[in-house]
Amino acid sequence: MPEQFPAQQQARQPGLESEMRPEPDHAPRYPGAGRLTGQVALISGGDSGIGRAVAVAMAREGASIAILHTDREAGDAIDTVELIEAEGGQALTMAGDIGSEDFCRSAVDATLARFGRLDVLVNNAAEQHPQDDLTKIGAAQLERTFRTNVFGYFFLTKAALPHLGDGAAIINTTSVTAYKGSGHLIDYAATRGAIVAFTRSLADSLNQRGIRVNAVAPGPIWTPLIPASFPPDRVAQHGQATPMGRAGQPNEVAPCYVFLACKDSSYMTGQVLHPNGGTPVNG
To answer: Which Pfam families match (predicted)?
Structure first.
């Protein structure tokens, strides 16, 4: 198959959007309709990739945005703030490790101090470390992957819950790998499966409070995680195994989050949306 992207690789995670060629497409494809006017969204991993596209799309719909990122991603975060402000939104950025419960508490506190409320929580930050052989996945890698991809979602949700009211929305990023598996991302796929169960269980738990909990399970998307995870030849072929024959762009995924955050999805909770290039899944 021909290359979809130029062969490229970044030396470490998290990858940087500013170093990708071409850069991912984050720009919303439709005019705003005020669907999130006056609301505040907190997005982990909101500096780049899917998180950036979600932040900009929600800002276009009238939301104020708080984004969480690592220290290394500060430059990408500054760019995202400029994009949010270009949509007329207000933005707050915070650097830290969502695997730390203390940081998650401080992030929620800072969001409330700046904006006075919290309406939408997007648990999106994640990491992955390819390894084809289970016996080579050490305890340190296993704990690190689960700490970011599962513990971080628990910690941030736990910190946010006392401040979410009737009508609030929690949206979790999972993955197509939760449904079809991945022989070279065994620990990562396991975390994504855990998030599906977390989403369904939390939705059931919060029904009586009027808080909806849903998830999005993207397929292969052109984000900084890709060149930071895989060798150049594989990056060049990213997404070609999907039925559509290509990777998706972040702005093809972001509308799922906007939909799940606003009243358009008022009769949905405990569900998962699948922007994955046509891969059939169950659930």
So the answer is: adh_short_C2
Helix axes 139-146, 186-206, angle to 10 degrees: 30
| Contact between residue 55 and residue 261 where contact means Cβ atoms under 8 Å apart | no
Q: What is the pLDDT of residues 68-113, one digit of tens each?
A: 999 989 999 999 999 999 999 999 999 999 999 999 999 999 999 9
Q: What are phi and psi of 157, to 5 degrees?
A: -65, -40
For residue 181 the two structure tokens come to 């598996």
Q: CA 90 to CA 103: how far, in whole Å?
A: 22
**Contact (CB, 8 A) for 67 and 92:** yes
User: What would the two tokens of residue 2 be?
Assistant: 């021909």
Residue ranges of domains in the chain, CATH in brackets = 34-273 (3.40.50.720)
Active-site residue, 188 included: yes
The structure tokens listed for 121 are: 């929580």
- Determine the Cα–Cα distance for residues 64 and 238; give it in Å rounded to an integer: 33
- Catalytic one among 30, 153, 179, 188? 188
Handedness of CA 201, 262, 251, 57 (dihedral sign): negative
Q: Is the pTM of this model over 0.85?
A: yes
Q: How confident is the model at residue 282 (pLDDT cuts 50, 70, 90)?
A: confident
